[in-house]
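Dear Dr. L.,

I hope this message finds you well. Following up on our conversation about the binding site, I have prepared a predicted three-dimensional model of the protein together with nicotinamide-adenine-dinucleotide. For your records, I am including the exact sequence and ligand specification that went into the calculation, followed by the structure tokens. Please feel free to forward this to your student if that is useful.
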Amino acid sequence: MGRLDGKVAAITGGASGIGAGTVRRFVEEGAKVLIADLDADKGEALAQELGVATAFLRTDVSKEGDVAAMIAETTDRWGRIDVLFNNAGFGGALGPIESTSVEDYDLTMDVLVKSVFLGMKHVAPVMKAQGSGSIISTASVAGLRVGYAPHLYSVAKCAVIHLTKTVAMELGEQSIRVNAICPGFIATPLAAGRPDADESQIDQLRAAGASSQVLGRVGEALDIANMALFLASDESEWITGREFVVDGGFEAGPPWSRWPRFARMERPIRHHRPPDR
Ligand SMILES: NC(=O)c1ccc[n+]([C@@H]2O[C@H](COP(=O)([O-])OP(=O)(O)OC[C@H]3O[C@@H](n4cnc5c(N)ncnc54)[C@H](O)[C@@H]3O)[C@@H](O)[C@H]2O)c1
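The resulting structure of the complex is given below.
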């Protein structure tokens, strides 16, 4: 028996990386999944590979009409929607604050934050009528701490975490759960800095990033898919309003022994015990 038997999900950014890994995982566990993405080539290929348990809809998550259509397509096709995974994203605006344009600001916020707001807004009435549902959004460790990503990406992911909490407070009464996942460094085209990155470029990323990870390897889409699976399933039925860090230990902080101050210390440990009487 699958952990998502009988459940229906829509996954944005489902054509690549974390989203595609989650589509595969959900289907393995018995769900029907709508793959929503801007990238029709990759999205349609995935839907064709996985068969009747999936369908693809070209969706721009920053456009309200597209997000509304995504929810309608899911319910028209399968009669309900148990899980919405707001996951689509990109790297957003790069560069110093004084040279970031307002257009870049708007685009970054539209794709990373407005999309999540729109997903929640349009799925809420359907889930309320059902009296159940799980909304999951992909934030980032960059939304918890500064220094891991450019200004606007960090701010956008922080907003996703806060939106998750405030909407969870509103929808709890109807048994709708709202949670976020904060991935660390995951080997995907986004982390490689280009949407068309191939497997060999992603392999280089794996090799380069492994030594800076507590657990000795970078994250894989499956690491995040497994958390999304837990949050989508009834196993997490008493969990809402939380952000879940899945980062191989990265965000907990660097090992204390890496600080030069401690590396220089070669003195033996001195215990400050009271003198014996
Ligand atoms: N890879 C990482 O290290 C990492 C870390 C933390 C958070 N994240 C987040 O994970 C999520 C998934 O990223 P990924 O690493 O799998 O990247 P990815 O590039 O492999 O996948 C992102 C997908 O989102 C789609 N997309 C982009 N803009 C869209 C839009 N406007 N409408 C619809 N689809 C759109 C892309 O076409 C692509 O298929 C993003 O929200 C990202 O910010 C990634």
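In brief: Residues 8-263 form a domain with the Rossmann fold fold (CATH 3.40.50.720).

With kind regards,
A. P.
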